[in-house]
Amino acid sequence: MLDSILNGIKAYLFTGKATPGEAGSISGSVFWALVYILLIFTGLSIAVIAMNWLERKILAHMQVRLGPMRVGPHGLLQPSRTP
To answer: Which of 24, 27, 51, 75 could form an SS bridge with 8, CB 3.0 to 4.6 Å?
Structure first.
């Protein structure tokens, strides 16, 4: 299984004939599926982190206080320190 995935990656990188839509083999399809899954997971994770930070900043502004700034620059590491 791993060999077929690596062969598909090599075929894509070195021949340039395989595209995500026409990977040509199961290994190419698995590779592009993993790439898409990782991209979506990364994008959603960044969106959740940004929304958490913005929520804290907006609530701090509404309560007329500086907001979470005790840990890290601009309080970016504060969610990792709060219980």
So the answer is: 27
pTM of the model: 0.53
Query: What is the tens place of the pLDDT at every residue in 23-70?
Result: 556 666 777 788 889 999 999 999 998 998 889 888 877 887 655 556
CA torsion sign for 83, 71, 68, 56 is negative
CA neighbours closer than 13 Å in the CB half-sphere of residue 43:
6
Backbone angles phi and psi of 13, in degrees to 5:
-70, -40
Token duo for residue 75: 């309080």
Note whether 63 and 55 are within 8 A (CB): no
Count of positions (residues) in the chain: 83
